[in-house]
Write a structure and sequence with these properties.
Elements lengths: L6 H24 L6 H14 L3 E2 L11 E5 L2 E3 L13 E10 L2 E10 L5 H19 L7 H15 L3 E2 L5 E3 L6 E5 L16 E4 L2 E3 L5 E3 L6 E3 L5 E3 L2 E4 L6 E2 L4 H9 L8
Antiparallel strand pairs: 1-4, 2-4, 3-12, 4-5, 6-10, 7-8, 7-9, 9-14, 10-13, 11-12, 14-15
Length: 266
C-alpha cells in the first residue's frame, strides 16, 4: 500500500531528512585515514541521539549498527568494523533517522585522499544519475521514468553496472514503504507518481559488472568482480512540476571541501 503525506507530515519528514544530512556532514568532518568505521558509527549515533532522534537502522531486522558503511567494493549495508581506513579508500555512509514519528534516509560516498580518475568518474556519474532520477520524480510520471533515467545515464551511457538486487523505496512512518524504486527499468512503467508521495532514490552503481554477492554476515553486499561501487541517496517528495528534495548535500559538500583528508571530485 502506498501512503501519501500531508503538507504537515512532509515538513516533519524534512526535519528527519535534514538531521540525516547533518549527521553525514558530521561524518565528513571526522573522516581521515586511520579512523575506523566503528568510530564513525559511534560518532553518528551520538550525534543523532543528542538531537533527540533515534537511528533508523539500528536493530532494524537485526542490523546491529547506526550506519551502513561500505568501503571500496562493498556496495551497501556494510558492517562497521575496527579496520583503519586508508588513503585511496572510497567510503559510502548510509544513515537513517527516526524523529517525530517519521524516518529520513540519505547516503553519500566519500573519497579519502587521492583517488584515480576512474574512481572519480564513477563517483561523479553515480551522483549525477541521482539528480537525473530526481528530475523525473514529479506527479504524473511513473516509477519507471526515474528508473530509466538512472539506468540510461549510468549503464547505457557510461557502461557501469547498475545493481538489480537492491532498490530505492517509499519512506514515512516505516523505513521501507511502497513503492519500490529500482535504478533500472522502462519509461512509463510501474506505479504512477502522485503529489505527497515520499521516496528514497538511491543509485547503487558498480564500476564493473552489475552482479553482487553477500558476505557471511548476511548484510554486506559486494561487487562480484571486486571493483569499487558508489552510492548516493536523497529523500524526495513528489510534487507537481518539480520534486522537493527533503535531504540536502550542501553541508556535506562544504565539509568535504574543507576536510584536507577528503578528495572533492565535483
Amino acid at each position: 500500500m502506498i501512503y501519501y503525506k500531508t503538507t504537515a507530515e512532509v515538513e516533519l519528514m524534512r526535519e528527519s531528512a535534514l538531521l540525516v544530512s547533518k549527521t553525514l556532514a558530521t561524518v565528513a568532518r571526522a573522516l581521515k585515514p586511520g579512523i575506523s568505521t566503528l568510530e564513525i558509527d559511534a560518532l553518528a549515533e551520538k550525534f543523532i541521539t543528542e538531537n533527540n532522534a533515534k537511528p533508523s537502522f539500528k536493530n532494524y531486522k537485526g542490523f546491529p549498527f547506526t550506519c551502513c558503511i561500505s568501503v571500496n567494493d562493498a556496495v551497501v549495508h556494510g558492517f562497521p568494523n575496527d579496520v583503519a581506513l586508508k588513503e585511496g579508500d572510497i567510503v559510502s555512509v548510509d544513515v537513517g533517522v527516526y524523529k517525530n514519528g517519521f524516518h529520513g534516509d540519505s547516503a553519500y560516498t566519500f573519497a579519502l585522499g587521492a583517488i584515480n580518475e576512474d574512481v572519480q568518474r564513477l563517483m561523479r556519474v553515480t551522483k549525477q544519475s541521482l539528480y537525473l532520477g530526481i528530475e523525473k520524480a514529479v506527479a504524473g510520471n511513473r516509477v519507471g521514468d526515474i528508473s530509466f533515467a538512472i539506468q540510461e545515464f549510468a549503464e547505457r551511457k557510461h557502461k557501469y553496472g547498475v545493481v538489480r538486487e537492491l532498490v530505492g523505496h517509499g519512506l514515512g512512518k516505516s523505513l521501507h514503504e511502497d513503492p519500490q524504486v529500482p535504478n533500472y527499468g522502462k519509461r512509463g512503467s510501474g506505479a504512477k507518481l502522485h503529489d505527497g508521495l515520499v521516496i528514497a532514490i538511491e543509485p547503487m552503481i558498480n564500476m564493473g559488472v552489475k552482479e553482487v554477492w553477500y558476505e557471511e554476515d548476511g548484510w554486506t553486499v559486494k561487487t562480484k568482480d571486486g571493483k569499487p561501487a558508489a552510492h548516493y541517496e536523497h529523500t524526495v517528495c513528489i510534487r507537481r512540476g518539480k520534486a522537493d528534495i527533503l535531504s540536502s548535500f550542501e553541508e556535506i559538500e562544504l565539509e568535504e571541501k574543507n576536510n584536507p583528508h577528503l578528495f572533492y571530485a565535483y
